[in-house]
Amino acid sequence: MENIKHSKIKIFAxxxxxxxxxxxxxxxxxxxxxxIDAGLKYPGDDLLGVDAVIPDIKYLVENKNRIVCLFLTxxxxxxxxxxxxxLKKINLPVYGTRLTIALVEDALREDGExxxxxxxxxxxxxxxxxxxxxxxxFYSTTSSIPDSIxxxxxxxxxxxxxxxxxxxxxxxxxxxQTSYDQITDISRKGVLALLSESLSANxxxxxxxxxxxxxxxxxxxxQTSGRIIVSVFSSDLQRIQKIIDVAxxxxxxxxxxxxxxxxxxxxxxxxxxxxFPTPGMLVxxxxxxxxxxxxxxxxxxxxxxxxxxxxxxxxxxxxxFDRLINIEKTDTIFLATPPIPGTEIKSARTIDIxxxxxxxxxTINKTYLPSPHASSEDIKLMINLLKPKYIIPVIGExxxxxxxxxxAEQMGYNTENIILLNNGKVVEFSQGDLVxxxxxxxxxxxxxxxxxxxxxxxxxxxxxxxxxxxGILLAMITLDAKxxxxxxxxxxxxxxxxxxxxxxxxxxxxxxxxxDSIDAGIANPRNIDWSKLKNDIREKISKYLxxxxxxxxxxxxxxxxx
Length: 562
Description:
Blueprint: E1 8-15, E2 24-29, E3 32-36, E4 52-55, H1 58-62, E5 67-71, H2 77-80, H3 83-89, E6 94-96, H4 98-110, E7 120-122, E8 128-131, E9 134-140, E10 149-155, E11 158-162, H5 180-189, E12 191-197, H6 210-222, E13 228-233, H7 237-249, E14 253-257, H8 259-271, E15 299-305, H9 309-318, E16 332-335, H10 344-356, E17 360-363, H11 376-386, E18 390-394, H12 398-410, E19 427-430, E20 433-436, E21 445-449, E22 452-453, H13 458-470, E23 472-479, E24 486-495, H14 504-521, H15 530-549, E25 554-561
Parallel strand pairs: 3-5, 5-6, 6-7, 11-12, 12-18, 13-15, 13-16, 14-15, 16-17, 23-25
Antiparallel strand pairs: 1-2, 1-19, 2-3, 4-21, 8-9, 9-10, 10-11, 19-20, 21-22, 23-24
Helix pairs in contact: 4-8, 6-7, 9-10, 14-15
């Protein structure tokens, strides 16, 4: 590094800005590309049937010869969920801590991949890696999952620090503790730009409360004699360990509902990240039948998953659809999954259904369930510790990024040193100064739908929205191949639009439109434009249906010739 006087640096995001999830950040130093995180985003209600949304990596594919490696900060899906898709396109070196790499390997195996063909490398927070004129160092962070780290890309013009998700919670196990020494060392060398998370920037104070959760759970458990069911997000290993510890204090056993969580727990137990204090404490439940209901008075059931999955599991249990647990009046339910954006309706509906079972339902106070994200005072502390020249708010919707920008202003930073970016917008530094932030890389979001990745377009999504709102009407008719006269039908099938038997007048009119249109269209049987004729019939039916019902179902027309 001593032979390099200055660096040319570019920073931009392929995902993670103006949204919650899909985190992927690119740092270019003198032409070399370093990638940080490769996460997914869970789809909103407007993306019907879509399983996940991942970053658009077109730029990386086009410049793969310049890519050095990918660094991972922690094992939450919004930071590692897109890795299988990325590695299928670009087989690049991937660096992460023990648990992070273990869960990446598990995701690749689940995707049917041979992990031996990939370059997965385990690092510690104390490691320093050198790539010619660039040094990469790390520091331990406090998050809801162990082995979380921040990334520091050291250049001759100063460090670029990416915090990822973090808090400064003090009452945590040593495996979750922040390394203040490492952060201080980074600060001494000088920080050019700080990429700090923003998701909770609009919340006052410090993020804390996990210690109070254990106390609250202990009180609740001591007052409960029957079976206990607790909802919890599968990514919150710190919270899951607290539930295990409290259950052990009250001589209870643990059962886990959720296949993915069972795999995560198995991996975490083998690696020592989750501990069951008493041998045999974790039990495997048998399917419910005439002789078994799994209603054990000393059992704590963890209903786990991501986003809406814990709520889905509780609904199955309440409606007695689940194969392992059916909620009874003697059960006590603790909801430790506050609704995240986009799940508020599902959460409220779940609570309503749970109350109908007659079971005791307890919603744990939100103050005992802090998010694993830095609040305003945590962000101030990180800025004061690192003293960066430039601040670039990342990880969050624009309102969150804006809230962090205001925090920096309150701390005395000039607006020209606070850089608000959108996905694809490039900020450039040369000789330690900002020189350009006007270039833009074209990025899109890639939709994952089953085995299909990136093949879905807006037409398909629009059709799904129409189907969900107005349904479909299928109109079928059969013609004689020689005379072109109607030989059978028309037959009308409605799904999600109208009930056929109660709307005979509408159905009869649609049938008449088809017959009249075909009679007019086959006046010259030797010169029939079937494509134009079908479009005309479809348009006439659609106009009639909208006039009568003020709805626009998808109209599908089938014309057979026999």
